[in-house]
From TrEMBL:
It comes from Chitinophaga agrisoli. Residues 156-329 form the DUF4872 domain. This is DUF4872 domain-containing protein. Coiled coil: none annotated. Pfam families: BtrH_N, DUF4872. Residues 13-144 form the Butirosin biosynthesis protein H N-terminal domain. Signal peptide: none annotated. InterPro entries: BtrH_N, DUF4872. It comes from the Bacteria.
Amino acid sequence: MSEISFSHVQTAHCESGVISNLFRHYGLSISEPMAFGIGAGIFFGHLPFVKVNGVPGTTYRIWPGAIFQRVCERLGVKMQSQKFSSPEKAQQELDRVIAQGIPVGVLSSVYYLPYFPPSYRFHFNAHNLVIYGKNGENYRVSDPIMDTVTEIDPASLSEARFAKGFPEPKGKMYYPVTMPADISLQKPIKQGIEQACHYMLKIPVPMFGVKGMRFLAKRLKHYPEKVGDRRATLYLGNVIRMQEEIGTGGAGFRFMYAAFLQEAAGVLQQPELSKLSLELTGIGDLWRNFAFHAGRVCKSRAADNISYNELGDMLIQCAAAEEVFFKKLSKVQL
């Protein structure tokens, strides 16, 4: 088997991190924030009818896989992507490809990754990592949210690649087959910004973008009387968990998009993007403040905790700030 020399860099988020690490291996240097921005990863959605572990789903980024798809399309990268009907076929194909010295991105469930601390394992089936070789029977792993490379045994990897639940990974693996010799980031940056503004401001469905934040805020205000104190705590806890613990988290995605705008300002020679980068960093702080107070409510840490109604008002403040921000961003001459 070919020994693959793979440069591992720890990143904040698995999907944009795998993009950055895989592309750099092939000589296409792109930062994680740039991948996130070109892929229009920033988003918001609250889906009360889509239950995650029995509670309504909330997301602070675009759906899994979309960032990768958009970045590849906009940069002219052709990927080979496969899903499989059985763990055996998936392992055979993985072995065949890495034997050729090709690092492979795979989709997995966090729950079955033994190198994760137990407290971080939960049923999330859209985690991306890179397999870049073998050490005996074990696979060498570059997981972008880990500080160093690690290994995983074949049984655990199969479990992670074929976990049940929504969405089912079905052993998905992917790797570049055509990389452009030279790229210009200017058009992809513009396309990413335009798409992000559209998704945050103009989706007519009330559950998405800025409208989705206000939709959640109204529901959150009435959680205790609608679903009872216990379920209200569970529902609120999931909103915080998705914001602060899953992937980069909601505020973290705002900080990452701010870093993208700072980088884009230099590429496009557009100082207005630097100003907006600072503004978005401030909005990320608003989200962190909401999470802090919501966490105290969930844990009943203080007698003077704010109410669900006040938490809803904080969300409305976040929505108002993001609406102003994305309207300004949509009007920048790129």
